[in-house]
Amino acid sequence: MVAAADPEPRERLVDRYLIAALDAGIRPLLVVTKTDLADPTEFLRHFEGIDLTVFRSRRDHMPADEIGAALVGHATVFVGHSGVGKSTLVNALVPEARRATGHVNEVTGRGRHTSSSTVSLRYRGPAGAGWVIDTPGVRSFGLGHVNPDHILDAFTDLAEAAKECPRGCTHLPDAPDCAIIEAVESGRLGPTAPGRLDSLQRLLVTFADR
Fold first, then answer.
1. Hey, what domains does the chain have and what are their CATH numbers?
2. Residue 105: pLDDT over 50
3. Where are the beta strands (DSSP E) in the chain?
């Protein structure tokens, strides 16, 4: 979960969530809250080409039934910064949960940690049942537990282009004959591809430096 504003969304944090989910075989969903405060279109362009279901919510419309339908038959973990509305959504999905909600500090732009523990709750909706796991807000999210070979899987269109890379290609800026770099530079993967390639390379460098 990420807010369109207050607090500001962080593309690279979402990248890390996606990589961790895909590495673990988890199907990721993205909920963008507070879309009445800012238009998330530009933010969401960063994730074009990734196999990702996106839900948008605003103060006067919480798509709880749509989100709930995607949770049926699954145990779903809600992760995100403090103040993005995780507990508000959990309360909409599981009214009896009565999870505490807070606000974002106007000076720091940070949310208060209104949820201090991880709680698993039973969701029952029109389409069926599932489990909702509410977690405390996070300030950072590391990838030390992730297999670096799976990082590319979070970038679906780049992974497709990588099939044409030479064996052992690192996909880093100095990689010779990298098919991803060539596809991005040619414009074949669209105008937002350079940003996704930059995210991919930053994450790969992080692992290379460990």
1. 2-134 (3.40.50.300), 148-208 (no CATH)
2. no
3. 2-3, 29-33, 53-56, 75-78, 119-125, 128-134
And the tokens for 108?
């720091």
| Phi/psi at 131 (5° precision) | -120, 140
Sheet containing 128-134: which strands, arranged edge to edge?
75-78, 128-134, 119-125
What's the pLDDT tens digit per position in 26-82?
899 999 999 999 999 999 988 877 878 999 999 999 999 999 999 999 999 999 988
Listing DSSP states for 110-151 in one string gives: -B-----S-EEEEEEETTEEEEEEE----S----TTS-GGGG
pLDDT of residue 25: 85
- What residues does 32 pair with on adjacent strands? 2, 56
For the record, the structure tokens of 53 come out as 């279901």
Q: The tokens 């999905």 sit on which residue?
A: 93
pLDDT tens digit sequence for 113-153: 455 678 999 999 999 999 999 988 776 677 777 777 788 88
Which stretch of DSSP H or E encloses residue 69?
A: helix 64-71
Token pair 């959504």 in the structure block, residue? 89
Q: Tens digit of pLDDT for each residue in 7-20?
A: 999 888 888 888 88
Q: Residue 151 corresponds to which amino acid?
A: I
For residues 182 and 188, give the distance between their C-alpha atoms in angstroms, rounded to a whole number.
9
